[in-house]
Specification:
Blueprint: H1 3-16, H2 53-65, E1 69-72, H3 78-87, E2 95-100, E3 115-120, H4 128-133, E4 136-139, E5 143-145, E6 150-153, E7 170-176, E8 180-181, H5 184-191, E9 200-202, E10 207-209, E11 215-217, E12 224-230
Parallel strand pairs: 1-12, 2-3, 2-4, 4-7, 5-8, 7-12
Antiparallel strand pairs: 5-6, 6-9, 10-11
Length: 233
């Protein structure tokens, strides 16, 4: 064993209060782990409550910095805003949008003849070819973290399978004010209520860059992210 590896493992064991100098002592192999209190001194919550003007403003600032498009839309105006946004995605006048089976149908009330809605469900999932051919996907969200500008989907019926928010080129996501928290620990606590659900963490549109920092969008997910942020009623 190298000296560097021995040193690293020794420090880890010292931090956890366990003996050993590089390998697990023979007496501990197969033994039940001891209860160890690991200090967690990070912030458990921010100074602003969920849904407050401060966290909403910070979320918008982060999302815009990530090149997402953000609109603040009142609940009553949401169907019209969704319809207008989706209709603008195609110059030919015909748009196909994928929606999860549990999405609030009221959000679709303003759709005109130029928008075709395709519903995806676990019982009748759309094939990848149809998801790829769709112009957009419309989903809700589980939680958003303002400090990191991150929106999290966790597979609830109004968010659907992970594939539907990763394959289409445009993602339209509705986030309610009460879903916006300030810090990651706050977001994780909400997600912890359903630890078995698959999660998708979204910080702006899909993007990557090469060694020269040339940004390329849409490499492994939606090229464009539209966020409709619904303030308190």
């Amino acid at each position: 064993m190298s000296d560097a590896r021995t040193e690293v493992l020794s420090r880890v064991r010292a931090a956890l209060g366990r003996p050993g100098a590089g390998t697990t002592p023979a007496g501990l192999i197969g033994a039940a782990p001891r209860d160890v209190i690991v200090p967690r001194e990070y912030r458990g919550a921010g100074e602003h409550p969920a849904g407050s003007p401060e966290v909403r403003e910070q979320l918008v600032d982060r999302l815009v910095d990530y090149k997402a498009h953000v609109q603040q839309v009142a609940e009553a105006d949401l169907p019209a805003a969704v319809a207008t946004l989706l209709s603008s995605l195609s110059e030919e006048g015909q748009v196909t949008v994928v929606v999860p089976h549990g999405l609030d149908k009221a959000w679709l009330a303003g759709m005109g003849d130029g928008v075709e809605v395709r519903e995806d469900s676990p019982a009748a999932p759309l094939p990848a070819s149809e998801l790829d051919a769709a112009d957009a996907v419309l989903t809700a969200a589980r939680v958003a973290c303002s400090e990191t500008g991150t929106i999290v989907l966790d597979g609830e019926p109004d968010q659907g399978r992970r594939a539907i928010s990763l394959v289409p080129d445009v993602h339209v996501c509705v986030v309610r004010a009460e879903q916006v928290v300030q810090t990651v620990p706050e977001a994780v606590r909400r997600l912890g209520a359903y630890p078995e659900r698959p999660q998708t963490w979204i910080s702006g549109p899909s993007a990557t860059s090469d060694i020269e920092l040339d940004r390329v969008e849409g490499v492994h997910g939606p090229r464009t992210l539209h966020v409709l942020l619904v303030p308190p009623s």
